[in-house]
Amino acid sequence: MAKTKTISKFLCIFTILLYLTTAAPAKHDKLGRHLSPSKLGLKTEKLSHLQFYFHDIVSGRNQTAVKVAEAAMTRTSPTFFGAMVIMDDPLTACPDVKSKLVGRAQGIYAFASQHEIGLLMVLNFAFMEGKYNGSTLSVLGRNTVFSAVREMPILGGSGLFRFARGYAEARTHVLRTGDAVVKYDVYVFHY
């Protein structure tokens, strides 16, 4: 019995030592490293203000937003709770949809509130004009449609908006039979 306990202890210690020697590699690989911002071409951080109009068209033949899913209860919900819409909305310089196109709002919004018309917005502002051409800003936030001003965070971006952070203020300019023109003021820090 004593011999069995001794062998058992020896095997336990041997197993632990074997594990420790094989689990600890000779060279530690690093997941990340510190970089100087200048090595990425980053200079002084700027604060930019962008202003444009978002055209969400859900009626007629030239829809820019289409419902792609809905829960059974959506049909009886006064807030459209459970519906999801995918969009590719024009962004223009002025409230008229025929004014200068500066980009597109591409993404998804879902009716996520049972008590008011409140949207979960997941979208990219993809710019197609001037110095921001090819750059994007990413938005993820709550949009309570009937509030005078809605604020949503800017979580990042690409192109001239790499490392972007900030917020977007949305104000409904026109709302007609589900179609909306929304004025956006975007305040964003970027390099």
TrEMBL record:
GO terms for cellular component: apoplast. InterPro entries: Allene_oxi_cyc_Dirigent, Dirigent. Its main location: secreted. Residues 1-23 form the signal peptide. Keywords: Apoplast, Secreted, Signal. It holds the Pfam family Dirigent. It is found in: Secreted, Extracellular space, Apoplast. GO terms for biological process: phenylpropanoid biosynthetic process. It comes from the Eukaryota. Belongs to the plant dirigent protein family. Homodimer. This is Dirigent protein. It comes from Tripterygium wilfordii (Thunder God vine).
